Known about the structure:
Blueprint: H1 3-11, H2 16-23, H3 34-43, H4 48-83, H5 86-105, H6 116-123, H7 134-145, H8 160-164, H9 169-199, H10 203-243, H11 253-299, H12 304-307, H13 311-332
Amino acid sequence: LTGEQLQNMLTFLPTRNELSKLQDYKGGSDSLGRAESFFLSVSKIPRFEAKLKIFVFVHHFQESVESLGEKLLKLKTACQDIIGNGTLTTILRRLVAVGNIVNEGAGKPKALGITVDSLLKTACMAGNDGKTKVIDVVISNLLRNGKKEESIDFWTKMKSVNAASRIEIQECQASLRDIQAGIKKVSINIHEEEQISVNETSQSLDLFIARCRDFVITAKELFSDIEITAKETEKSYQKLCNYFAEDPFSCKASSIFEVVISFTSLVKRSKATWERKSKAAKRKDRLKTSKQISHTSVKTKVPAKEIMPSRREISQDKVLISIRSKVSSEDNE
Length: 333
């Protein structure tokens, strides 16, 4: 049976009232409908609902563990990428410094650091001209004074943030608890079935117990691995919250990631604006230099009358050429 079929079977199990009526039924199954026949069949299996729930859990266990592992890894990587990004840290420090200069001019207290709530507000804070933003000043200074081999493109080392932006650490913790509780239920069920098997000999029951034991052994090993990953992810998340001076118990990971993504967009726009203005300024300088060179060449140009020979000079040249040709012909004779 597929997982969906097992889940549907669990949904359509008979209620206690329906089971009591079936137990009082003395007729044959031929006179019953398909639903009633199903109810009658499952009513004859001891603890059928508990066993069916175990089947559902076991069927989805591998998928649940793999899905949780992927989420934890994405979340852990995103936290580490932000914390360990030196370029982002440099930009945030300068953002605080420039923001405090603006605050000081407005008579406001200085900020000691950047929080999630204050990051975008500080970046978009306008200067005295009402147009230039704090982020524009920070980025222009970095690009103007930075070395060519250095880059402010911190987002190239934070590609995992987008993938983790919809993952919550609290949801991962809840999934981990559900998996642990499911394994515990299977273990309890094994114990209960073993108590029944003492008084009841059944090959199918013995097979069910053996399969459940094998599952619990494998499940505990996988759970141990995923639990280690979860603890590592929680530590990384706590460090990320401390990085932005946030409470890890009340702050959501998606809130931090969304702000970082929005801040990245601001930096990209500011960089593009600076590059566009820089190119325009370079074109203007080249045009100015070209005009200066052209003006200088006009000033140093030799007048036409100084370089063109006069008619008298041309007549003298013709006489000299005629004399040379005569002398040359006489020598040949």
